[in-house]
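Render this sequence as a predicted structure.
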Amino acid sequence: MFRTFFITAIVTVGLANMAWHATAAEILTPAKQAHITDFESGKVLFAKNAEVSMKPASMAKIMTVFVVFNRLADGSLQLDDKFLVSEKAWRKGGSKTFVEVGSRVSVDDLLHGVIVQSGNDAAIVLAEGIAGTEDAFVEEMNFWAKKLGMAQTNFRNATGWPDPDLHTSAKDLNLLTTEMIKRFPADLYPDLYPIFAKREFTYNKIKQPNRNPLVYGAARADGLKTGHTEESGYGLVASAVRNGQRVVMVLNGMDSIKQRSTESRRLMDLIFREYQSYEFFKQGQSVDQANVWLGTVPQVDLVLDAPLKILLSRKERQAMVISVQWLDPVPAPIRAGEQIGTLVVTLPNEVTKLPLRAAQDVDTLGLFNRIGAAVRYLIFGAATPQKIAR
């Protein structure tokens, strides 16, 4: 007999290495493009024109920094290495770090200039110092874009300076940012990603504040980058951690600095308030018990391969249903790790099935004991499985 037990609960879920695609919260924003995700699971929390081609402006510098971080990580570049400032870099307009032509500037200072001050001059110095020319550096940027799966992206320079053939998408920038945080965690690379959270940087006796509005105050963002051109509008890539949950947010196409600041704060607060991660079953915890036919024990524990966790909105959480299914009774012998059941997670627009495995070995009874057990089963039936309430 095939048994199904339902566990209805106000819970959330996310099994490691699984993608969940439940309906995101209903959110309105004046941003023309947006892509917001949960860092750990990759779940899309909100998207608007996320795969539509757009101009990144200075948000393109995230890839410039990504290339530099990779060079530092593989040992081919050091933070105290110094690069010569060319006349091309020195003359570049837009936001500047104010490096002086003919001087030599450390990679560390150049990274601070690009990340905190959005210095176009610093970005070109890094590009020329690493690859010889900015064009050669752009080839490396596009190599990484292709390798990371940034399908809508083509870089034309190291700065995000307007170019007809420069384009990306909110989804691609989110993908890049997520990969950067994964590859260069602060505990392993304390001199790299934490630069994004610095509120100011002084170079050549000129102090400039970080342009990212979310690194200030209660927003508690630890990165990443703003961007603006007439064509792109005002954009922002940001990431923040609250209560152990990291969110990655890309917004673009807003009308003003003020709108970018207020809207990015509003959306970040809303996402953290609307979504919450819950752990339903821990590693090795018994989900339920299945009856055993002619085994040395009457029941066997059912366990999952990994902890059951998921990030859900309030609406998803209320609608969620979990059920446990197995063939009742399960005939012995049973080996630990053998799949003998299924846990079914039902959300409004998705059903996910996860294998339930035996937690321990169960041997078959001897001949006479099997006869006695069979008689008892025919007379009294199986033992009642233990119900789990949450």
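Summary. Confidence is low (pLDDT under 50) at residues 5-24, 383-390. The longest helix spans residues 257-274.
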